[in-house]
Amino acid sequence: MSDQRSPLGPVVSALEAAGLRVDEVLEPIGVVTGSVGSGGLDGLRAVPGVSHVEEQREVGPS
Questions:
Q1: CB 16 within 8 A of CB 42
Q2: What share of the chain is helix, strand, coil (3-state, %, to 5)?
Q3: Residue 35 DSSP one-character state
Q4: Which residues, listed in sequence order, are joined to residue 31 by a DSSP beta bridge?
Q5: Is 0.90 topped by the overall pTM?
Q6: Do residues 34 and 18 touch, judged by C-beta distance below 8 A?
Q7: Under 8 Å CB-to-CB from 34, ≥6 apart: which residues?
Q8: Which of 46, 47, 45 has the alpha carbon at shortest distance from 55?
Q9: Is 49 left (phi over 0), alpha (psi -120 to 50) or beta?
Q10: Could you tell me which of 2, 1, 35 has the C-alpha nearest to residue 16?
């Protein structure tokens, strides 16, 4: 295990402070998944280092 801090560490901490309940951090692809209460998306978008916030959507046969 490395003593170096994850490059996403500060972003994840800021997302949690903005109200995100983190489910998974996918470090190799720079993605964080989780959930936030209604109206919390703008707060997540304002976090430095966040380039995109996507709402959950259903995928499957129509």
A1: no
A2: 25, 20, 55
A3: E
A4: 26
A5: no
A6: no
A7: 15, 20, 21, 22, 23, 24
A8: 45
A9: left
A10: 35
Handedness of CA 12, 17, 18, 23 (dihedral sign): positive
Residue 45: partners with Cβ closer than 8 Å, 6 or more residues away: 53
What is the residue type of 13?
A: S
Tokens 């703008």 sit at which residue?
42
Per-residue pLDDT 10s for the chain (62 aa) are: 344 456 899 999 999 999 999 999 999 999 999 999 989 999 999 999 999 999 887 888 86
Cα–Cα distance, 17 to 47 (Å, whole number): 10
Give the tokens for residue 52.
């995109």
21 vs 13, 24, 61, CA distance in Å?
A: 11, 9, 29
Length of the chain: 62
